[in-house]
Amino acid sequence: MEKPSCVPYLTACLATLALILVTLRLRRRRKLNLPPGPKPWPIIGNLNFIGPLPHQSIHALSQKYGPIMLLKFGSFPVIVASSAEMARALLKTNDAIFTDQPKTAAGKYTTYNYSDITRSSYGPYWRQARKMCLMELFSAKRLESFEYIRKEERKVFLQRLYESCGTPIVLKDHLLNLNLNVISRMVFGKKYTEGTGEKEIVTPKEFMEMLDELFLLNGVLDIGDSIPWLGFLDLQGHIKRMKMLAKKLDRFLEHVLDEHNARRQGVKDYVAEDMVDVLLQLSEDPNLEVKLERHGVKAFSQDIIAAGTDSSSVTVEWAVSELLKRPEILAKAAAELDRVIGRERWVEEEDMVNLP
Questions:
Q1: Vertex 196, ends 190 and 198: CA angle to 5°?
Q2: CATH number of the domain that 255 lies in?
Q3: Global pTM?
Q4: Whether residue 259 sits in one domain with residue 165
Q5: How far apart are CA 196 and CA 179, in angstroms?
Q6: Neighbours of 174 (CB within 10 A)
């Protein structure tokens, strides 16, 4: 009886060794040149560095690791750009690469499962949404048609500031009201921040509370987004709040769409009065690449209200804050207004090009 040959075993061992060496070589060759950052812990990554005010925690880390750094939030790598140069590289030079938003609980529960403009995945739906914004919702002609709304609400805003002279005011609240009134009239055709005496679907207080909750929940750092296998536990209670908010918002938006459909029904060649009208007309367009469903109309409407309110008021609030801290620049701005506008009339939108 012949002894079994060891050649096949030796060949298999050599082949396995060769495969391991090739894999290691390829892995070394594919090693990425990653930005600097703190060493992550198992499971939690760098979440131990993030305090109750994440933007301040990240700023402190950027002072140590530079204008671009790599963090790990649980299982996910996060690139942080904290200079104008790095922001330009990510948002302008390489914008197509960074178009997609991460899939978060807030996107799932508060934007109709990523059906809005900002949370939808890059692809046909997102490109169509962008085209709708550029060509229909925010075209120069459309925005010009709403100028009377902005003018009326600015006068109300300035009147209220004038009436508050001599007493401390919270400018942020006035700015938020101004922006919310302007954008809600442009989107919904009326404002919900003031009682009309009629029975409304939401009171002004409820409307503001819904928006405040929307802003908050879309900015929280939820543990389930970073460590998915802990998501079902809802350790911070965010998911429960998101689901409750989604029900309230949907009830309100359903009412808005029903009102608009009733107004359009039976009217031949109906001319859109606000952005919800425009979206409803687009949802009936058979030539759309991707059909805009009813939940998409609600998601887009909610998106415009949220995006057009908080960010604008915060920007103006910070600008005024910086001016108050620099009297010499405030005096320069006032002198420019006196020279270009004078003191006999209000500043109008067409004056902006002459106010560098």
A1: 110
A2: 1.10.630.10
A3: 0.83
A4: yes
A5: 19
A6: 17
Are 196 and 243 contained in the same domain? yes
Same domain, 191 and 261: yes
Model confidence at 154: pLDDT above 70: yes
The DSSP letter of residue 246 is: H
Q: How many CA atoms lie within 13 A of 218 on its CB side?
A: 22
299, part of any domain: yes
Report the percent of the chain where pLDDT is more than 90. Answer: 71
3 occurs within a structural domain? no
Q: Look up residue 149 and give its two tokens.
A: 């709304």
Q: What angle do CA 209, 186, 278 make, to 5 degrees?
A: 115
> Considering only CA atoms, which of 117, 118, 148, 120 is closest in space to residue 282?
117
- Burial, 274: exposed, middle or buried (Cβ in 10 Å; 0-12, 13-18, 19+)? buried
Q: How far apart are the C-alpha atoms of 178 and 154, rounded to whole Å?
A: 7
Tell me: do 184 and 146 sit in the same domain. yes
The arithmetic mean of pLDDT across residues 314-331, rounded, is 95
Residue 83 and residue 63 in contact, taking contact as beta carbons nearer than 8 Å: no
